[in-house]
Amino acid sequence: MSSRSRSRARPSPASARITDEQIGDLVSKLQALLPEARLRSSDRVPSARVLQETCSYIRSLHRELK
Question: What is the C-alpha to C-alpha distance for residues 24 and 39, in angstroms, rounded to an integer?
Fold first, then answer.
């Protein structure tokens, strides 16, 4: 069994759980860090889209480093 599987199998303490509201706040903060997202910060962007844009942005940064 891998360490990843073991960590998922263990129940986490209630205090370590992240609420939907906290996730929303974190996604909003992440959106503010993305250059493309700043232009439409007043629009409601789905969390999945923010995460996709984040991945794309990180990939572009990696390409710039190479």
Answer: 19
Three-class secondary structure of residue 17 per DSSP? coil
- Percentage of the chain with pLDDT > 90? 45
Two structure tokens written together for 2? 């891998």
The two tokens of residue 9 are: 């199998």
The two structure tokens encoding residue 20:
């939907």
Using the CB atoms, write b or e for 30-59: b if 16+ within 10 Å.
Answer: ebeebeebeeeeeeebeeeebeebbeeeee
pTM above 0.85, yes or no: no
